[in-house]
Amino acid sequence: MTTVADGRHAGRLARLRIAVPRGILLAALPVLLFCLLAVIGPLVVSYDHVHTELLERLKPPGTQLAGRIAVFGTDQVGRDVFLQVLYGARVSLLVGFVTVLIAGVAGSTLGILAGVAGGRTDTVIMRAADIQLALPAFLLAILAASVIGPSVTNVIITLAVTRWVIFARVGRGAALAVRDREFVDSARILGGSPLRVTLVHIVPSCLAPLLVVATSSFGLVILAEASLSFLGLGAPATVPSWGQTIANGRDLLGTAWWISTLPGFVLAVVTVSFGIFGDSLRDVLDPRALAR
Amino acid sequence: MRAAHTYRAKLATSGAVAVALLAVTTGGAFAARSPVTQAAHEEAQQAAPQVLTVAGPTSLVDLDPQGPNSAEDPTTLVASHIFDTAVTHVGDTYEPALATAWSSPDDTTWQFTIRDDVKFSNGQPLTSADVKASIDRIIRLDGPLAPLWSAVASVEAPDATTLVLKTTTPFGGMLTNMSLLYVVPADLADTDGFFQKPIGSGPFTVESFDPGERLVLAGNPDYWGSAPALSQLIITEIPDVSGRVTALSTGEIDFTWGLPADQLPTIEADAALNLVTAPTYAFYYQWFNSSKKPFDDVRVRQALWHALDLQTIIDALFPGVGTPSLSSIQPGVFGFLAQQPNAYDPELAKQLLTEAGYPDGFSTSIQFASTCCPGIRELVQAMISQWAEIGVTVEPLEKEQAKWVEDLLALNWDMNAAYNVTTTGDANFTVGRLYTCAANRTGYCAEDLDAAISAAQQSLDDTERATHWGEAQKIIWDQAVGVSIMGVNGNYAMRSSVQGFEPPASGIPNFTSVSIGE
């Protein structure tokens, strides 16, 4: 029975009464918390990353400072580590969101185009993707960062350039799967132009897997941005970022362990949560799962 | 079904065995750092040749003692092991080294008698021609040490054991210069790739060199002076401070120095390690590029100095390691004269900025090398924070060592923060070399400063020289050519088996007298 719900008819989900896996709620919580804090946190609490408070340096978590408690302690020039994590979350969210948007839109478009058009277009696009994959992504990022210099824009561009391939591959796969379906054929026979057929009939069916990829990529992009910042090639030193905070505590792991460990833990939780969320999303949106 | 069950069981068993093996071997690897293996390691060291492995705070990129890196600590450290100098500076006097005797027949002539029994490690005899070539090379390559030799008009080697130097004006700093002149073979020094495996006459010879990774030196048993007890000296690269401290604790290296103040308690608490601290001629400093706006205005430079609360910075970031600087050189250096400390006064700073035409402050940058010296990043961050309070936004530019040196010498910077040593213990090395118009190292050029420096360099009377050096220091201080931040108490951390180490005033360790005991 072809009660397959394609993306267009997502509203039917509730009526199908699919048991939403508990994992998705568990993973959604840190994800939502992260997004919420990243957006609202900096608006509520003020923090100046340039300002050093030398008398408050290397204080352990929970120390009472002038007027507030250092929840995650302070670093070696007296800056509050929790506030660095909060403000760094904003950078991570921005980089993650914009990168996934750019890579996602560009990659998906190319992928769906390749899948629908087939032939030479498909070959060219997929070979370009293969070439991109052959280049070690991280080295490319390091090269770009050291040539152009550290800035948030450069990080976004570099990461987007290395990330579009997976969207293209998934988009192409989804487009290929849907291209020869009956309803697409019907639309074509009824006289729809290739563009209309693609946009109205094929693309919606590809959205579900692409959304899953986007969500999983989000976590990996955040991790990549932190890695670049750790190496000093990400956001500039005047902008707080998770990688930079972790790098600052590197020499003090034995004594002031909180500088590297706590932001690192937060980073790990966020990355894993995005991954699980993406996985659970796939379980929910996969048409074959729905048919069961 | 049974076959599947058995297969699955076998898979599970082999998986479990593999995991167990992995756990045992990794556990074993961790156990390798246990006391039992440590004792075996030390026993092997006693029975085996004397090998000392060291790692320093700064990256070693170049072995050329006359080239662009000739003023960098690691290059000087290696040079003092593989080459010889004409004289050595011991305390307040100069002792013969390659030169057995010297005299100054008249005001503008110096004559040195060079030993005839010294050979380079390739068997070639060392003559005055090699000393002449080394001096010519320093002047010709125009590196950071070249300004020290600006008074030299000619160098002649009339015979194999005589060296005659003529100067344009009387020059009192000749012996100091000769104590820092490393003699390289005349015919080989300019060949391509010579400094990849240089040949010298010193107590150690170069076995292999991987720039930025590792240098292996072998003890020279045929050394004309007192041969070293070590058979091998390995200088390895561990730029990460925590990595270095860990390597020292586990015995991977035997000696390190220049640790940040935060690491010293860890070293002191470890019974297997010794910590030696001693005052040095080293200091942390900051320069303004006086050839670039807005630092061409003395009021702006003074404003930025008054905005800094150096005492708090030193107390917080460098406890036990730093003492506030009172001049552009450290106490103990010949010619040192204490200056009036500049008060921490942000209000005065803002006033000076307004007078200079920057009531709302301005934006600029500060460069520093990532492997410069312990705590440089925190120091720069603290200074940037304090400058932000008077409205001056400073962007930190952290650069890799070689790039930093390149930009520094090309004056491609607005402000520069670094570490320096008055290696010879004489004011000429710092004041005379870096602050003349001809040297053009800071963009600051003033006739009165040049006059004071020349007078000091040309004077042959110690008291007179000291007076002139004092004058030069006062000008440098009052004109705020840079901010003199703090003097450094050197720290040297070593395993307790390392014996015979004497902390040098220059802060640059020497291992010629070191041996490995029990």
What's the helix and strand layout?
The complex is a heterodimer of chains A (292) and B (518).
Chain A: H1 12-16, H2 22-44, E1 63-65, E2 68-70, H3 81-117, H4 119-134, H5 137-148, H6 152-179, H7 182-189, H8 194-230, H9 242-248, H10 258-285, H11 287-291
Antiparallel strand pairs in A: 1-2
Helix pairs in contact in A: 2-3, 2-10, 3-4, 3-6, 3-8, 4-6, 5-6, 6-8, 7-8, 8-9, 8-10, 9-10
Chain B: H1 2-31, H2 35-47, E1 51-55, H3 73-82, E2 87-90, E3 93-96, E4 99-106, E5 109-114, H4 128-141, E6 152-159, E7 162-167, H5 174-178, E8 204-210, E9 214-219, E10 232-236, H6 241-250, E11 255-257, H7 264-269, E12 273-288, H8 298-306, H9 310-317, E13 322-324, H10 346-355, E14 363-369, H11 376-389, E15 393-399, H12 401-409, E16 415-421, H13 427-434, H14 447-458, H15 462-478, E17 482-495, E18 498-499, E19 515-516
Parallel strand pairs in B: 1-10, 1-11, 14-15, 14-16
Antiparallel strand pairs in B: 2-3, 4-5, 5-7, 6-7, 8-9, 9-10, 11-17, 12-16, 12-17, 13-17, 18-19
Helix pairs in contact in B: 8-10, 14-15
- Which whole number gives the mean pLDDT of chain B? 89
CATH class of chain A: Mainly Alpha
Radius of gyration of chain B: 26 Å
DSSP summary: helix tally of chain B: 15
Might you state the CATH topology name of chain A? Answer: MetI-like fold
Write down the overall geometry of chain A: elongated
Number of helices of chain A: 11
Structure description:
The complex is a heterodimer of chains A (292) and B (518). Chain A has 292 residues and is an all-alpha fold. Chain A has a single domain (4-291), classed as Orthogonal Bundle (MetI-like fold). In chain A, 71% of the residues lie in helices and 2% in strands. Chain A contains 11 helices and 2 strands; from the N terminus they run ααββααααααααα. Chain A has helices at 12-16, 22-44, 81-117, 119-134, 137-148, 152-179, 182-189, 194-230, 242-248, 258-285, 287-291, and strands at residues 63-65, 68-70. A two-stranded antiparallel ribbon of chain A has the order 1-2. The N and C termini of chain A lie close together (10 Å). The model of chain A is unreliable at 1-9 (pLDDT under 50). Chain B has 518 residues and is an alpha+beta fold. Helices cover 34% and strands 23% of the residues of chain B. Chain B is built from 15 helices and 19 strands. Chain B has helices at residues 2-31, 35-47, 73-82, 128-141, 174-178, 241-250, 264-269, 298-306, 310-317, 346-355, 376-389, 401-409, 427-434, 447-458, 462-478; strands at 51-55, 87-90, 93-96, 99-106, 109-114, 152-159, 162-167, 204-210, 214-219, 232-236, 255-257, 273-288, 322-324, 363-369, 393-399, 415-421, 482-495, 498-499, 515-516. In chain B, the strands form 4 sheets. In chain B, strands 1, 8, 9, 10, 11, 12, 13, 14, 15, 16 and 17 form an 11-stranded mixed beta sheet that branches. The longest helix of chain B is centred in the first third of the chain and has 30 residues, at 2-31. Chain B is globular and about 95 Å long. The N and C termini of chain B lie far apart (66 Å).
